[in-house]
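Below is a filled-in request sheet from our internal design queue. Each sheet records the structural input a requester submitted and the sequence that came back. We keep these sheets so that new team members can see what a complete request looks like end to end.

REQUESTER: design group, bay 2
PRIORITY: normal
MODE: inverse folding
CHAIN LENGTH: 424
BACKBONE (tokenized):
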């Protein structure tokens, strides 16, 4: 074996370069696709038993005989390997879900609801928390069946391995709950089964954890560091959020880790249309890639416009659209750890900037609105979106952009009221 010192090229100085080492993959790290695969592994069996136990504790169902004329819906397990920030396996998660797609709307159910917080609310809460020095913690609910009370009668087959029989809700974001006492303020943000808690009192967080654990089986994940694939780092300057690991996963899964980085995500004069290029034989590759990029825009406003443009061609993507998407990947490789800073020295005053082009879409002649909203020095909201009508002039397109921005500002003012922020 050669003992010569190896040095990475200069253009890779900002990247971690290591030799690839092939190691055997543990069977526990492989996500099963069906129950028959999972039941052969004792670790996955333990995860399924924990899910059933948690559902029983929450009184999710009542065992009964199937009445005559009723048809039960089936159920299945969804398996997921949960990873830590460094890529190591945190735990195995088995989620029991009902096959609701076999139901008929208006007969078996009226509407659906899942508590999903807006990402603007998450960024707004973090920016306020760092200015006011609030504690930030996160919890994980062991199962997603919370307080979704059903008014309809639903019958479901028994799942495999089953052998037995406070706070004010925000009007601005229904997934935000706040509680104010004489000496503390606590905000709780729910995203399905992930919970973000911010409070100016550590004792209030402890009391909240005990309360939630009495009603649901939750796991205390400690201070906020990794939430919904978003890496959170707190320092004296403020809070940094990024999706470094998620960005590297996209590059690895799309086989572009070895590609040459580029300085811009899209050429300035490029105008994509439905007819550009030849239609792809497999549309799923493009849809998968754009879907991943859409989630990356949570912390990357610099690619918001480009990804918005690419998302318009999900129905019939072409080779030109896919080539433009691959260029975005090369741009991401330039700085995969780029982050957003919520400054601790920031004021809590809203300000916004908006702009629009005019008739830039070659297919519909509609204009594109772009805006960004700051809370003091912290960027908390941004969007690039095609306008719903055709503007007769550039002035009309600008007015539409301003109206859209004012709607966002109005909503944010109501959100700040719930978060105990006085705003003129």
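RETURNED SEQUENCE:
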């Amino acid at each position: 074996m050669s003992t010569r010192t190896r040095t990475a090229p200069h253009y890779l100085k900002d990247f971690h370069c290591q030799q690839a080492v092939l190691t055997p993959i543990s069977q526990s790290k492989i996500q099963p696709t069906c129950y028959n695969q999972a039941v052969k592994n004792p670790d996955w069996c333990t995860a399924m038993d924990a899910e059933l136990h948690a559902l029983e504790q929450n009184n999710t169902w009542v065992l009964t005989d199937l009445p005559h004329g009723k048809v039960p819906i089936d159920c299945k397990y969804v398996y997921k390997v949960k990873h830590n920030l460094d890529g190591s396996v945190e735990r195995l998660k088995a989620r029991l879900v009902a096959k609701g797609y076999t139901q008929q709307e208006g007969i078996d159910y009226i509407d659906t609801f899942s508590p999903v917080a807006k990402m603007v609310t998450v960024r707004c809460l973090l920016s306020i928390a760092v200015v006011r020095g609030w504690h930030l913690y996160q919890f994980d609910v062991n199962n997603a069946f919370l307080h979704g009370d059903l008014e309809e009668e639903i019958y479901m087959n028994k799942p495999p391995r089953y052998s037995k029989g406070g706070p004010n809700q925000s009007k601005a974001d229904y997934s935000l709950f706040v509680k104010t006492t004489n000496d503390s303020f606590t905000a709780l943000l729910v995203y399905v089964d992930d919970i973000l808690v911010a409070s100016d009192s550590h004792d209030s967080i402890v009391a909240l954890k005990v309360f939630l654990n009495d009603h649901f089986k939750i796991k205390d994940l400690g201070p906020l560091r990794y939430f919904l694939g978003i890496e959170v780092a707190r320092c004296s300057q403020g809070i940094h959020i990024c999706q470094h690991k998620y960005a590297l996963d996209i590059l690895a899964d799309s086989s572009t880790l070895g590609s040459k980085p580029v300085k811009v995500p899209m050429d300035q004069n490029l105008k994509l249309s439905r007819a550009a290029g030849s239609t792809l034989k497999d549309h799923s590759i493009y849809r998968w890639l754009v879907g991943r990029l859409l989630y990356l825009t949570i912390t990357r406003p610099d690619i918001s416009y480009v990804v918005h443009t690419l998302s318009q061609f999900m129905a019939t993507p072409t080779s030109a659209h896919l080539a433009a998407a691959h260029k975005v990947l090369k741009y991401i490789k330039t700085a995969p750890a780029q982050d957003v800073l919520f400054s601790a020295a920031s004021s809590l005053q809203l300000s916004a900037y908006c702009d629009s082009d005019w008739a830039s879409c070659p297919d519909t002649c509609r204009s594109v609105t772009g805006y960004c909203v700051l809370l003091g020095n912290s960027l908390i909201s941004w969007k690039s979106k095609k306008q719903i009508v055709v503007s007769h002039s550039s002035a009309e397109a600008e007015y539409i952009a301003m109206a859209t921005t004012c709607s966002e500002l109005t909503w944010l003012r109501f959100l700040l009221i719930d978060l105990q922020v006085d705003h003129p």
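SHEET NOTES:
- The longest strand covers residues 89-98.
- Residues 264 and 331 are 6 Å apart (CA to CA).
FILED BY: M.R.
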